[in-house]
Amino acid sequence: MKGRFRSFLLGAFKLHLAKARERAEAQKRGGNCPHVSLDIAQVEAQVARELATNDTPERLFERAWAIALLEEALNRLRREFERHGRGEAFRCFQPCLQGDPDAARREEMARVLGLSVGAVQVALTRARHRFAELLHEVVLQTVASPAEVSEELRHLQSVLRG
User: What's the pTM value of the predicted model, to 2 decimals?
Assistant: First the structure.
């Protein structure tokens, strides 16, 4: 009898440990999804701007979609720069990724980064190329086939131009 009771207790204890481990490892609601905080003032301001335009809801959606894709590519580029210890360079280059900075801006970036103006221009050109590659990757995730990427990029450009 004593052996059976010990076996029963051992089995109950193992079951208790298994259930405790299962509860500890269980994903809570939301799982590994990042939490997004809503800045109510920012959302209201954006809605007010959108309502002030004469654009259709479809055009507003397409513009928001295009901006979201650009922001994703920009965030990926920022993370790459930061991973390589070049966060300051990214902060300098970010306003210039889609346009050519004037000479004064390049000189200011060179001073901040401790580089020559020529080195800044080369680094900025490389950053722009990488940004274009990352945007291509982001768009590739949203289309059915790689052949559609160029067409989708052209469409996004036309949407952003207005």
Answer: 0.66
